[in-house]
Amino acid sequence: METILIVDDEAFIRENTERILGAGGYQVLAAAGGAAALELLADHEVDLVLLDLNLGNEDGLELLKTLKREDPELLVIVITGYGSVESAVAALKLGAYHYMKKPFKADALRVIVKLALQTQTLKREVRNLRRGDLALFETVPMVGASRALREITDQVREVARFPASTVLISGESGTGKELVARAIHHLSERREAPFVAINCASMPEALLESELFGHEKGAFTDARQRKPGLFEEANRGTIFLDEIGEMAIASQAKLLRVLEERAIRRVGGTRSIAIDVRVVAASNRDLQEAIGAGRFREDLFYRLNVFPIRIPPLRDRREDIPLLATFYLERYSRSFSRNFQGISPEALARLTEYRWPGNIRELKNVIERICIMHDGPLLTAAQLPVEIAGSGAAPADGPPDLSLGLAAALDRFERQLIDTALARCDNNVVRAARLLGIPRSTLRYKMARFGR
């Protein structure tokens, strides 16, 4: 049962508020002034304070400062009887969650209290995750309560104990494959050595080989000096090969040899160099399908797939969305000196209903953009992008909104397609244009048109 403390010098207000909230199942404490309030806070675990700013001879703002100094995480809703915008703004700047004007209706009180306590619960769950899994949380914000996430966390811990085992992480773009790879490295005995990451889809085959294995002086035209490769750089540590499914067949054969011999040979070199490195690979493609199509070597797949970890898309673990949204809202609210204290129920419903084609990366970017453009105390549905704010209006496969008109509906659909393609391709315009089947110049024009 949550405990609420009412601080108000008017007995009628205290009694009426106590009656309303007591009927809602809350434990209610009451104080007429600051001294009594501080005594109650010292003796009880209080979840929320309702604080009148006009406490007779006392200054409610000064009491608010004291409360937040004693417990910065304490949720405080301030109440003002004279509608002073200045005092309400001052209270919000001091860390108040929200403010209400007297007289207030019972239904409004119930709603804002319920919302505030839901926010407090989410914040506590995030803090508990930090405390309970600190070593992992410091490396990767594995925030969530879903069974799938718990299984991934267990897998990360287990494979981290065996520093030579190769890991293959699969999952859609934006699900956090590199973060999981970093967590494996951080929890293993290799943590003091380098973690080196490379995206295999980001460079041509000839350059990729030189980057991975290094080259000798004179190996090719621009090779003016010897250059160690990433495998050497990651020696005694971990190398993360992202988008391994995009690697050319010839490079796959050389990687297979490295995995089998635990040695590399620089481009243009004549001797093998022994390496001690854990290989973690990742792909957002179905590698079994790629094997069938002749685009991926089956023998390399089985070499990489010693310990497979599959990360499900965010839409398949929707119970994690409120915690993730709250986590990123706290992070970016601090970074940008904003005063966000929580997420409105309507906004939280929209966030949970949305399909998140870009997964966690898209969610993080949305929250960051909102914190840049807006301030608190609540993240509201009106601040969400149109494709998310309207996500609850109809099912994804339901009938279109005819009230928009044809031109506006086509624009919305086109923008959603572009946003989805960019999210899946990590904002790589070349890959997104290829995915959409349009020229890169056309995509850039449309991005500029939609303010992307």
TrEMBL record:
Database matches in CDD domains: AAA
PANTHER family for the chain: ALGINATE BIOSYNTHESIS TRANSCRIPTIONAL REGULATORY PROTEIN ALGB, TRANSCRIPTIONAL REGULATORY PROTEIN
Boundaries of every Response regulatory domain copy: 3-117
Name this polypeptide is given: Sigma-54-dependent Fis family transcriptional regulator
Coiled-coil portions: none
InterPro entries on file: AAA+_ATPase, AAA_lid_NorR, CheY-like_superfamily, Homeodomain-like_sf, HTH_Fis, P-loop_NTPase, Sig_transdc_resp-reg_receiver, Sigma_54_int
Keywords for this protein: ATP-binding, Nucleotide-binding, Phosphoprotein, Transcription, Transcription regulation
Limits of the Sigma-54 factor interaction domain: 142-372
Domain of life: Bacteria
Modified residues (4-aspartylphosphate): D52
Pfam families (UniProt xref): AAA_lid_14 (PF25601), HTH_8 (PF02954), Response_reg (PF00072), Sigma54_activat (PF00158)
SUPFAM superfamilies tied to this protein: CheY-like, Homeodomain-like, P-loop containing nucleoside triphosphate hydrolases
